[in-house]
Amino acid sequence: GEIKEAAAEDVDKEEEEAEEGSEKKAQQNQEDEVERSLKSLQEVAATRHKQKISLEKLTVIEDMTTIELNDYAERAYRVEAPSGKRYVLFVRKIPTAAQTRHLKHKIWRLKKFCEDMAKHSKGLVRLKNFTIAKNCSMSHDMTLSQFKHYQHQQDMQSLMYSKTCVYLLVSNFSRSLLQHIVEMDDDNRQFELLHLMALYAQILGILHQIAPNYLYDHMDFDDFVLVDTTETTVEVLGHPFPTNGVLVKLLPRDKVLHSS
């Protein structure tokens, strides 16, 4: 009996060590991904326009990539400028053909959308830098076989074999609305009615601002993000709503449909 018990303890110990080793390997892979991103920032050969903030001077401080924020062709990092100000950097695979500026490409519709909305909307996360890298080493986590029934498989193929990425630097936010909902659910917490109404009111306010000229294809909760605020109320369509410490913002996505 003592021998069996000792053997069982050894098995448990081996399983714990294997699990710990797997966690360390995953963490190391994540750190390597961040390092590759930093290297890419410093070596980026890009179609560059005049930018407010230089990518090369940013420091990656947190890998934010999650299923509730990103799809398989994208990574997200919280970064810090030399001034100490923080932003969120998206590194996204795009088709090689999208290097050419034209509104037929999703990424250029996104850029036009950000430029237009910046003039008359506070409900959008601000785009601070838009840089296309012609030789991007970012990998992807999924294969085409997992998307065999996906209606835009041709788009997936163009991403799979593309070496082109876009770097989208946006104003800082804490998490996506979907992440917030998932966290509440994981903690078995329920939304208070006023909090839920305030979130939806802000979403409706944003939709009211963009509706005259733009549509979003298949808008989801991960298209909205939360920005921490000290303001107690926010005005939406002339009515004050409690913020509960967060403002809802629309995250620029390549789902934008333009009237042209």
Description:
The structure is a single chain. With 260 residues, the chain is α+β, with helices and mostly antiparallel strands. The chain contains five helices and 13 strands. A hairpin with a 2-residue loop joins strand 10 and strand 11. About 4% of the residues have low confidence.
Strand order of the largest sheet: 1-5-6-4-3-2
Shape: globular
Strand content: 15-25%
Mean pLDDT over the full residue set: 77
Helix content: 25-40%
Structural class: alpha+beta
Q: How far apart are the first and last residues' alpha carbons, in Å?
A: 78 Å
Number of helices: 5
Low-confidence stretches at least 5 residues in length (pLDDT < 50)? Answer: 142-151
- Strand tally, please? 13
SSE ordering: HEEEEHEHEEHHEEEEEE
**Major β-sheet profile:** 6 strands, antiparallel
CA radius of gyration is: 21 Å
